[in-house]
Design a protein that fits this description.
single chain; about 80 residues; mainly beta; four-stranded antiparallel sheet; about 45% strand; globular
């Protein structure tokens, strides 16, 4: 099961994370492979903690987001 993670800019506008819009996406320094989705899907059973995402768009925008994750209890 996954939870959707949406990156917003300072004005609250979604930043597309699709491959045709980004140079790179990194999670905790590890480069992820972007696909055709504008958002990321985060595994809900991932360990609790802070996850750091770095994004650079093809237009030159650079973003840093910290996800303070608390796992979703599974039934």
């Amino acid at each position: 099961m996954y939870a959707e993670f949406e990156l917003l800019d300072k004005d609250g506008v979604r930043v597309s994370l699709a491959a045709d819009n980004v140079e790179y996406i990194k999670q905790d320094g590890v480069t992820l492979t972007p696909d055709d989705q504008e958002t990321l899907w985060f595994n809900v059973v991932k360990s609790a903690g802070q996850y750091v995402f770095e994004v650079k768009t093809k237009a030159g925008g650079q973003y840093l987001a910290i996800l303070d994750w608390k796992p979703i209890p599974m039934p």
